[in-house]
Every structure is written in structure tokens, then in C-alpha cells.
Amino acid sequence: MSISFSGLASGLDTDSWIEALVTARQDSLLSPLKTQYNTLNAQKTALSKVKSTYSSLLTTTQTFTDSKFGVASDIFASNKVSISDSSKVGVTVTNSTPRQNISLEILQLATNTKVTSSGSIAAPIDENTLVSSIASGSVKEGALSFYVGDKRYSIEISKDDTLGAIADKMQDIALDEEGNSLISVSFDEGKFTITSNNSDVIRIGANSDTSSLMSALALKNKDDGSVQSSYSIGALDLSKPLVSVESGFYKYNDDGEKVPLIQEGTFTIGNAEITVTNETTMNELISKINTNSESNATAFYDSVQNKLVITSKQEGAFNVNIEGGTSNVTDILGLTRNGNIIPESQELGQNSQIKLNGSIVESYSNVITSEVSGVAGLSLDLKDATEAGKNINITIGQDTDSVVSKVEELVKALNNLISTTDTATASGADLQYDSSLNSLRSDLRTTAANAISGNSVYKTLASIGITTGEVGTSVDADTNKFQIDKDKLVEALTNDPASVKTLLVGDSDRGISGIVQQIQDITEKALDVENGFFQTRETTLSSQMSNITARIETKSISISRYQSQLEAKFQAMEKQIAALQSQQSQMSSILSS
């Protein structure tokens, strides 16, 4: 690239001259083209905005015309439910549900089957039971007080203590003057019992105690002056492996040693196979049942009854399927006998029972579907039984609110289209006086004002409360938009919904094309992706913009050449002036010498 310096010989600002000449050439050649391009681009943007309103209108019209695809898509078939007492039942319907009045009496709800261990599952406490084996090892250590008569005694509780050791502590501390114990502590079928050896009243616990053993053993002051556990206490530790004696599932062998009862292996509940390993605790076993969807049941340990309780997730009079497997755990827990269910341990749930329009209907579930109710599309969610002889009234009628809402959306879309078109084609706007757009707009307004021949009652939109300004009037926000008289529309939908539907979407069997269908036809034609107005117009604008872009590129190249030519001419001029200046200097030097 050559480097030039402006006016070195002539002293003239030739760069400024070149810039001014090039700018003048650009203004004459490029500016008109860029102005045309910007105008076309603005028209394309404005056209896109108008097109989007046509797309929105088309989507809205399809809400109505989709009724031809069946009842499920027919907004005129939409039903609305009113219930005299929704606290007792929830009701859902579909478009296929016949409109009617229903009398419902809920005689009883369905309940779930409950399985309870046939007996206490863990070994009852005795003198060899460790404190740490009670209440899943959660007993707090510390002081425990008891009173014999009016005198208080206190012992310290350790988790390593056996209940026999605690009994000894209590008996050893409560002595009379001769050194004889004032109390006796015994274990009877899992109950910790403290009795007086004389007529003194015994009371357990003080607000200064720090140990929670009293609560863990459910100790209670009795009216006869003794203290005893309120129920049989099991030595069950939910956090210890089931196959270990520490869990509380054990028996004594001939040598007086504890031997574990539960074996590793599997068992089945519902359709779920549950595995018991050498590390599985009662807490984990319960969690396995509750988190396995195939068990279809939930389990919890009832510490008061010392039993496992399993409740079916399925309502109705069904047995909970429990099968023993390679593990004997279900037998030990009293859920099965020799691996099979124990019928008397399963309290079967009951079926729901209702009186529907005077007829008794029974179901396994509290959700009564149309297959059970016998009413198409009707589903009842039972919540509570009704008072004897008291009925719930259910009314199924047309959902006029839904239709009105869709009509409002249609009117809004049509008004938005007209407003956007008027703004885009107004004087001074990007698409001013566009006759094609104004013609489309007029066709839509004219169509909306048309009368439908052959319809029984309602023949125009105005007859159902939808009015417009006069076609051809000047643009005005108050008179040029569609307006809805909702009361009149609801009245029409109530009196003759079929006639309103025919007015809007037509009746193919009678050869009637509804107003919304006609609007949709115009809109679809305008939006056709091959030959529609918007596609044709966008293609034309894009082609014109592409041609102008090519012309701008050609003119830019020409201007670049023009600038190069100017720079070469001025550089040649500077060289010529420099040469003449050099000759003059030489001549002056010769003459002066």
C-alpha cells in the first residue's frame, strides 16, 4: 500500500478535497439506495407485526372450529359442575358427560386393610434387659427418683445397666431401720412393677430427674399405691441388626444364653421382594417396605402394642399379600404362619358405597370412575359420608363461562388485528395506504357483520351481543372495534346453545359455514406459506432488498475506484509541482552564481 502526504509540494489540503468529492459521490449514488433499503426494511417489519395478529386470530378461531374433531375438542360441549356440598365429594366431568341433575348419598367410604402382628414381636423386658435395649437405645442417663411414703430416693441410671441391676439399686437404697428393703421390684410379662413391702404409697419421678427411663418403661403411679408399666414393654432396639440378639429378637437356649431368632433372606409384601441382610435393622426394614412402590403398603412399629402394623395403600376389601421366603422374619413378626398370611391378623378394609339417583353403587375405591358410576365421563372423589337420608345435589350443565371467555379472546384478537392494520396503513406509516392490507381488514369486518342463512334462531353476531361499528367508517377506537354484551351472550348460550354454535362454527350436515369458520378461511388463505398474501409480500420485499444490497455493493466498488483515481491524480500533480520547484531552485542557483 502506497503512503501519500497531502500537499507536500503544493501546500494544498488535497485529502480534504478528495474526501469531499468522494462524499458527494456517495450522497448521489449510495444514499438514495440506502434510503430505499431502510424503507423496505421498515415495511417488512411492520408487515411482520400485522402478520403476527393474523396468526393469533387463526389460533383463536381454531379453538372454535376444533369442535369438528369430536366432543373432546368442542368448547360448546364443555360442562360445568355445581355441588350442594363440596366438603363431602369432589366431582369431575368431561365433555361427553350428559347434562343432568344427580342425587348422591354417600353411605360409607372405602377403607384400607390393616395387618397387625398376631402377638408381641420382641422379647418382653426382664432382669437381663439392658437399658440401651429399650426405646431403641434412646434412654437418657442420669438421676431417677422415687418416693416411699414421703421420703425421696434417687439412683443413677446408666445405659450399661440391666433392669435387674436397677431393681437392685432401688431395693438397696430404700431400707428401713433394720436394713430391710421397703420395696420389691418384679417383672411380669414385660411390665416393670414396684410394690411396697408395707402400707407405704410409692410414687415415681420428680421434676429434678435427668434420666428418661421412667418414660421409656411407661411407669405410672397406680391407685393401689404401686408403680407399674402401663403396658408390656418390649426389648426392641430399632437401630440394631434384626439377626442379632441386641435387636430384641431372641430366645434363651438350655444354657441360658440368648440366641437370635431372625434369619437372613427374603420375603414378599405386595409384589415387592424385601431382603433382610445381616445389617438390616427394624428401621431399615420399615423403610424398605415404605419406599418400595411395589409393596403397595406402609409399615410402622407400634411401640405401645409392641407390634408391627402394615396398612395397604389400596382401598377396599383386599388382603395384603405377605409371603414368607428364605427369611423367617414375617413369621417372627407375627405377620405370617409358616410363610402364609394369618387371616385373623388382617383387618380387611371396606368398599365404598353410594346411592346414585336411588341406585346402590359399590366400589373398591373412594374415587368412583365412570366405569363404576355408569355415567359417561363422571368421576366422584368421595371425602366423607353423608348423614342418613341426606342427599348431595350435583348439577351438570353447559360451561357458558368457558365459551364466553373464548369469545372474548376471539374479539380481542380481531380488534388487535384491525387496530394494528389501521396503525400500519395510516398516513405517514410504513405501510401507508396499503390497499391489499386494507382490503383484507375490510373482508374480515364485513364477514363478521354478515348474516348466516339457514340458522334457526341466531343469524348475526349482533343477535348474540357482539357488535361493531359500521363498515367503511373512519378509524375510531370507539366505533371501529367489536364489543360484547356478556349478558346477551350468556342468555343466547342458555336459551339455544346449538344455534349459537351453528352461528359461529357452522353445521357441515346442513351446509352452513359459521362466521368464525369464514374468518378462519380468510386468515388461513392470507397466511398460506406458498401463495398467501404475507408470504408473497415478504418474498417481494426480500427480493427488492436483496437487489438494492447488490446495487449498493456495486456502487461502493465504483466509489472506491473513483477515490483511488482522485488520489492518483493529485499525487501526480504533487510530483509535477515538486519537479518544477526543483528546476526553479537549480535555475536560481545558476543565475546567482
Features:
single chain; 28 strands; Alpha-Beta Plaits; 593 residues; alpha+beta; five-stranded antiparallel beta sheet; 4 domains
Topology:
Elements: H1 14-29, H2 31-65, E1 79-83, E2 89-92, E3 100-108, E4 112-116, E5 142-148, E6 151-157, H3 163-173, E7 183-188, E8 191-196, E9 202-204, H4 213-216, E10 219-221, E11 227-229, E12 250-252, E13 258-260, E14 265-269, E15 272-276, H5 282-291, E16 297-302, E17 307-315, E18 322-324, H6 329-332, E19 336-337, E20 340-341, E21 346-347, E22 352-356, E23 359-363, E24 367-368, H7 370-373, E25 379-382, E26 392-398, H8 400-425, H9 435-449, E27 466-467, E28 483-484, H10 486-495, H11 497-505, H12 515-527, H13 533-592
Antiparallel strand pairs: 1-26, 2-25, 3-22, 3-26, 4-17, 4-21, 5-6, 5-9, 7-8, 8-11, 10-11, 12-13, 14-15, 14-18, 16-17, 19-20, 22-23, 24-25, 27-28
Give a structural overview.
This protein is an alpha+beta fold and 593 residues long. It is built from 13 helices and 28 strands. Strands 1-26-3-22-23 form a 5-stranded antiparallel beta sheet, with no helix packed on it. A 4-stranded antiparallel beta sheet has the order 16-17-4-21. Strands 7-8-11-10 form a 4-stranded antiparallel beta sheet. Helix 2 packs antiparallel against helix 8. The radius of gyration is 48 Å and the shape is elongated.
